[in-house]
Protein 1
Amino acid sequence: MKVLDLTRVMAGPYCTMVLGDLGAEVIKIEKGKTGDDTRSMGPFVNGESACFMMINRNKRSLTLDLKSEKGREIFLKLAKKADVIVENFRPGVVQKLGIDYETVKKLNRGIIYCSISGYGQTGPYSQKGGFDIMAQGMTGLMSMTGEPDGRPVKAGIAMNDISAGVTAVYSILAAYVHKQKTSRGQLIDVSLVESGLAWSVWEAASYFGAGVVPQRTGSRHRVSAPYQAFKTSDGYVLVGGANQRSWEKFCNKVVHKPEWIEDPKFKTPHDRITNVDELERRIEEVLGDKPTHHWVDLLDDAGVPGGPIYTYEESLQDPHILARGMVQEFEHPVAGRLKTLGIPNKLSETPGQIRRPAPLLGQHNDEILRDELDLTDEEINKLIEENVVTREELVK
């Protein structure tokens, strides 16, 4: 699969990174001199942005002035040979540049053209600029995240950006299957708002099923209990007693309170969620006597899902995380040897790979123009003189 990547920052680059991890050939098209906005975001390793390097592996970089006629011509020549184009400009920009879906479709009937934006390509908010935090606010996520008596809190990660990237990935793959069957491409419209909203399944069940507006519940689950973090003598432990069997094991083998099983307040899952305040109080009266590791061991022995709450550093050092290959290393031409997140899906026949580090700005200009478009050195030098592309040596 050949992918032209016109995206920057997070949602689009995450999508194209995943495609690259799975074997796609990704050409990242960037503006000269500055490139993707993320290149200016710290921390830096030998002058290279760690943020950029983390999300742009398995790509080649081509600097291209899309506002120039020659830059547009080069893009359309590349688009003619591509399978997929991904862009995350504000709606209307690609039309102004003359590189939109309808234009490319005339040259390449099979093009899969994915547009990612804050609010989508249509609708009354389509022209608004949309970042992750705005999408978290609009989807109601921030109103239901945090402690009940606290202020609205955003998720600890850029959840709507990543959900949009993931939505774009599976949409592109679905369109690619369709293309293989029919030779026809299509336009894909993905927004940060809708991608995040689509993940709120329990919350939708609460609202559509009972008219209940989800509120902030801390670490509690909306429909299961005990399913949350509980205080211990030295921190917190997570307990996932999501079904009746786990609840009974928890009572018998972890807290040694078999009488709770027949208590009318806790007898059924509905009873436990209805009386979750008292349930939490009683459980913490028991768990507060011992440290977290004591309860984690008991939960494991009883076969009840549970665990600690790690810092991010502790997570990346956990032996299970390491054994699953979620911390890997790569060699960067400027930053040197660095660690990065691994690939989460383990495919038996076509496993993902980190084949190349994130590119330097314009690193592959000559290579792409020569190999993909058969341009001569003389023609490439002419484009550089006219600032249509930027010579990589001048970028560093």
Protein 2
Amino acid sequence: MTPRSGRALATVVLAAVLAGCGGPGSEAGGGRASGGNGPARHATTAPPQPSAEPVRPLARSEPVGLRIPAIGVDTPVMRLGLASDGTVEVPPVTDDDLAGWYRHSPTPGQVGPSVVLGHVTVGSHGDGVFRRLARLHRGDRVEARLANGTAAEFAVIEVRTVAKAEFPTDDVYGDVDRPELRLITCGGPRSGDEYRDNVIVFAELTATTSARSPAVS
């Protein structure tokens, strides 16, 4: 399946908020937001700058795992699609919380924005897989393990906390001319099972390696 362009992707999902903050009665954090590019409430890094030496893009291969050493994340990755109301699905609220890759976005390492969601909390189960996402800083490493045995390594270029009503759809879904990654969860003040904001991490591809080491004779 050929991934859709960023602009087409934004249209398909109808500017859905990629929330990732489910709890009892919260519909797992799904919802909608305006398509405007509202200002960020908080940014932990400087605006993204292009790399001096772009890395060659990878062929399509679905992600099966995600590692973020700086915040102790090492998680399998499940596939996500669209809910019946046109919003992006989020991982189920369970005690073995996983990250989820939105299957209508490019796979990690392909040209374009690959989108991965995770919960910050999972109701009565406690903390979610992306509970520390907002602590990332520019330069922190994110590794996506792919089904074909390749590992795509990314570096964080920006971290934003934005109001859900000001979700920056174009920045998240919009076309880019290099492989990038978006990690999204909830953040900000909490009211019951809902959070006011989204935390969005922007990262760029910096290296690719074989995740399966050859046997040594």
Protein 3
Amino acid sequence: MLKIAWTDIFAHSLPEGHRFPMAKYDLLPEQLLYEGTISAENLFAPDPLPAQYILDTHDAAYWRRLSELQLTAAEIRKTGFPLSEELVRREVVIMNGTLQATLFALEFGIGMNIAGGTHHAFTDRGEGFCLLNDIAIAANYLLKHKGFQKILVVDLDVHQGNGTAQIFAQEPRVFTFSMHCGHNYPFHKERSDLDVPLAAGTDDKAYLRQLNHHLPRLLDEVQPEFVFFQSGVDVLATDKLGKLGMTIAGCKERDRVVLSLCRQHHLPVTVSMGGGYSKQIAHIVEAHANTFRLAQHLYF
């Protein structure tokens, strides 16, 4: 069964002024339920993640200052959100959503989070709407508690997964692959195991050519036991923060390529939503919904 992490805290705990396009966290499950792609039993509401699993990834001093709301004004500005107890709780719930989705992926082949993909969070700081790094936390859980020896992160958000790259820079058991717009945030890039920077305006054909060149080869060379897929839809031409030129159909094909390859290689995969900032919320919801529709079609 397809299991998807979702709770209304994903959207409702955000500060006023940050609700759009974050309304997608409510609109997406509503759309999927309405059209019959999923039913209520596909959704699960995660609890906050216990701190011990956060500390497998994040610096203890950073976590203490974050949880006690003691970040500096400069640190808070970098995150893009006003710091609050509700915001931290939201982040900790999202972390467990991805971890629990990972456990479901071990059982069913795939697990998904309506939120997550917080790839700009570093070991000791947050950036770009990310306070903690859900992909890194879940990957470290597999390494430490499940005995995994090789994990592949496929980050296809329009922005480089700089935090994830930093966290795993000295961890050979995790291979980080980021395909992103080269001239976009973050302006200082970290070094992933494989970075594929794309030119502004890259269209469907050029994007998919690059993906189809790199991903099958990585699966053969890296030989991962598990995949984390950051499926941001800020690759769309309509995205306010993106700079690429993809259509909704092209974005759907991107997801089909990733999920089909994981399925063909019998690789469990956890999907985190990532970014999406198109001016029309309908574009964001439709592009994200395609990821979940494909998962249901390909796996169940």
